[in-house]
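Researcher: We plan to redesign the surface later, but first we want a full-length starting point. Tokens attached.
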């Protein structure tokens, strides 16, 4: 795979329905390009690991329920500097959702803060530009292809030789080696190796996932450590609220630009 799982994210992370990364809408240059799912070769006491089956159960377990998915990409440089990109997707039981992305200045690439509100029919999207302004636009349909990120998880887990251990509430997954390109990372980080994976599945839901790898900064050649973390929380207890800017955008259906204030 010429590009890693995250030219990203997103689309969390495009974090994608169709391709099941993060986003399905147009104008999403940071969409994740998930790895293809190879044939399962790892075995465990529970039988051969089937990444797609696990992803399907994750999606089914969250169907018609509210929940929040938190995703964090972290890059640590040799001098100790840390850059992060955080995504939070809060989904209501009626299918509405609010997605917030926040990045720090040390995070590599051109990812910018953004917010998305989906009202069940249309999406309002607010982005921060390189100049620090805000642009607001609307698109028909859901901006995220699959808010559960099930397809993304299936492709991601399919890139690792996974061992499975049963637990009282579900399963624990682990791996000490992923296929080349299996670790999600920014496009200007390359040659990610020495990867490891830990995940927990509770009641069919991937409740926690952590992947770590060692890579190289494509521009400077310095070594970097990358982490990808995902958690699913507040199942049945999430109530996303529609921000004022989204209400106004969906009512007017116009695109605007103004100073970034970081507010709702």
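Model: Full-length starting sequence:
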């Amino acid at each position: 795979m010429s590009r890693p799982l995250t030219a990203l994210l997103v689309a969390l992370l495009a974090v994608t329905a169709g391709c099941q990364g993060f986003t399905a809408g147009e104008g999403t240059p940071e969409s994740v390009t998930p790895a293809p799912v190879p044939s399962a070769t790892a075995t465990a006491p529970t039988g051969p690991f089937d990444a797609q089956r696990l992803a399907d159960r994750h999606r089914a377990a969250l169907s018609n329920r509210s929940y929040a998915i938190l995703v964090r990409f972290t890059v640590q440089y040799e001098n100790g500097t840390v850059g992060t990109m955080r995504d939070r997707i809060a989904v209501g039981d009626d299918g509405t959702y609010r997605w917030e992305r926040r990045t720090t200045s040390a995070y590599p690439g051109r990812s910018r803060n953004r917010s998305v509100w989906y009202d069940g029919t249309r999406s309002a999207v607010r982005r921060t530009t390189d100049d620090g302004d805000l642009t607001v636009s609307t698109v028909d349909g859901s901006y995220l292809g699959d808010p559960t990120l099930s397809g993304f998880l299936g492709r991601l887990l399919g890139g690792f030789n996974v061992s499975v251990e049963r637990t009282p509430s579900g399963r624990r997954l682990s791996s000490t080696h992923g296929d080349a390109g299996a670790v999600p990372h920014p496009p200007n980080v390359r040659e990610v190796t020495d990867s490891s994976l830990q995940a927990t599945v509770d009641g069919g839901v991937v409740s926690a996932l952590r992947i770590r790898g060692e890579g190289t900064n494509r521009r400077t050649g310095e070594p970097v450590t990358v982490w990808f973390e995902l958690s699913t929380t507040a199942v049945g207890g999430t109530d996303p609220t529609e921000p004022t800017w989204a209400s106004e955008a969906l009512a007017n259906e116009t695109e605007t630009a103004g100073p970034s204030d970081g507010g709702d």
